[in-house]
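Why do we care about 3D structure at all? Because function follows from shape, and shape follows, mostly, from sequence. That is the central idea of this module. The next example makes it concrete: a single protein chain, its amino acid sequence, and then its structure expressed as tokens.
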Amino acid sequence: MHISSLRLRNFRNFRNAKLHFKKGINTIVGENGSGKTNLFYALRILIDDTLPRYVNFYSTDLNRALGNWAGHWIIISIVFDELDASEEAQSLAVQASGHMDTEKQGSYAVYFRPKYQFRKELYDYSQTVGKNATDLQLILDKLTIEDYETVYLSRGSGDFSDDATYNKYVGNFKTVEFPNPDDKEELIFGTWLPKEINIHNEVSCTFIKALRDVESDLRSYTKNPLLKLLRGKEKTVEVAKQNEIIESLDKLNEQIGSLAEVKEIKQGIDKSIKEAVGTTYAANIDIKSELPNEMEKLFQSLKLWVGDPDDEGYKGRIWELSLGGANLIYLSLKLLEYKKVKTDRIANFLLIEEPEAHIHTHIQKTLFNNLKENKTQVIISTHSTHISSVSKISSVNILSRGNREALVFNPANNLQSDEIVRVERYLDAVRSNLLFAKGIILVEGDAELILIPEMFKKVFGLSLDEIGISLINIGSTGFENVAKIFHSDRIQKNCAILTDWDKTIVTLPADSAKDDDYQKHCRASEKSGEDRKVILNNFCSGNNFLKPFYSKHTFEVDLLMNGNSYEFVQCLSKIYSREADKEKVKIKLEDSAVEVAGVEVLRIADKQGKGWLALLVAEQISYNTYIPTYILNAVAFASAHINQSSKVKAIYYRLNLIRNNNDDELRPEANKFKTREKSEEEIVKTFCETFKNDQLTKFLAMT
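And the structure:
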């Protein structure tokens, strides 16, 4: 039995969310503040016996996007798959409803809802003629959190992450329609578990939080997994061996008690007591060694001694290890405990919060790769690209911060198995950061990867990172393998694809038979670029989260021909040693004809390597470097989420540079520009009206 889905309604930053899980190992990927901790707490409310049987909910636990929470419910439900035939598992089995396979699926849910009397009042009002939102609000205003109840039910089939289900069985606050609470709707909500069955006794759940006090847990009698592994082992020790150990301990206790030093202390205590209260009332005392002589207690006295692998021969106590080392020991013990001890439970669950907190990169990847299925379902939360890079995307849920609610995406939803495999091949530790981004730009080479972030930072004063954009080098033009995960069915984030159209930079003869070698190369590139454009346009068609953007020729040519010859010319001193060569190349790069300048920049790129040339050009980028329009459009599409504060930061940056860079034409306007007592929206509007030809104005108009 394993958890196949978790459904959340109105719980903290989850307004309506559904997460899907597989057997074995699952990963929750998300940026800080996206709700990973809340998600784990929701799971634990239902299956973790270290939490109170009835968890207290508060008004602050209701999702803020509701506005007025009164009358709304918190619903957290788990769906289990592959139930076995045991009575305990079948007590969770979903009842016949047409929604689930009742032989294999089960459910368990907690409802935090208004008590019966209030639900009945809402229903009665919804049946009146002339019902309206104003009078409904008067009823809701009477409701306090003390008027709520917490109910745990199993075997329900209702998916309350679905708005239609919620509106029908909880209530529609807009249309003032509420169900009759006397209609139990047990097929939807579920029923009480049998009295003799407690879900906490039937499943095992361990939560390992990011900053766990591992040392304390390993000292604890109830939490120490080592003791759980040893428990009951004393019964398997041979009787003769037990007797031998116990006799030797009895003899050792007697030897310790008969030491002269011990007898001296005993006599001193005896004398002191008798002198204080007299011989009539003085207690008879002795000092005895109490090393345990029972096998069970002896096993409990065993402690784990450990040593770092690079300190051969030395072993010390657990607290001598680093936090990461202690976490690894604890996690390994828990996995072994589940494999050896927890076999009597119908399911085992291991929840690990951010294992990267104390574990370095190589161990993160090794740990994740080596976690084995042993009747245990593992759910890991992370914002480590190293863990996400070895995750199977079919077992990944992505959390993203929305407007007062968490958004949940499943990157493998509705993909074929071969498509999933191709995506996973691309998601190494570098590319997997696209799972954490708010917007994505896919590029085909190193030059774009180097220069686009540098241009955006130098021209606008904003880094792509700070506005939540991941720029990913696919290393080819096979964008489809990765881009397909950005879709309304999967990850609902804007992904821009930047590639070359590869239009020829030289005039081609009408008859291709007359092409020289260079013209043949240009003609072939143009044909490939045109074919690629058709394929990409068709691939992105109908997908609002994907959009291709094309340079007319190539990235280097379009960057040069957009008024950026200065940046390239300044690099020549690091490429050529002879002045004559520098001057010759300079003249060509500054030529206005693409047949001259374009051919020359591509010649240099081929000679030096595109990545190396990009590094040289990056050093020359300044605030007045001109960013090609197709790149601005791509960044604008990927940063549709950009906020006003980021826009205003860029405006201040541009104003400061205009004032301090001898721009005689624009400096007077920049000096007159006032921002005091203006809202961020007014600042943006005024800047765009004042500096109509500025690159930033152009970019802001695109967002």
